[in-house]
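Pasting as-is:
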Amino acid sequence: MLREEVIEKLKESGCRITKQRLLILDTILEGDFTCAKDIYYKVAEENSGIGFATVYRMMNTLEEIGAIDRSSMYKINGQDDISKCDKCMIKLSDDTTVDLSEEKWNEILREGLKACGYIDDQRIQNIVRKVERQV
């Protein structure tokens, strides 16, 4: 999920988009965290006025709107570099899932790129997710 999508979902759920919430969101997007406490320490480096409870409440809100999953170790959903995973689970809009091995995922991606005319016989070396940020 991109920053703008998360912000829109927060607005739809009735949340005000404060500087503190944006800082917490941007921190999550930039890092790889295992718990809310790690996020808090990183956020506190930028703004010492943000308390742990604020970070924790924001984490709960992000989970409620479906932006994060605690089992994903506090990454924004869709943020993983799937070229590095052994297995990939794709969740579809009807809540069904498709489990793919890294090899199968790369095959599907390569064939799709080929069918659209982006590649010929090249191999996928790396996937980098670009996140557009607004300040």
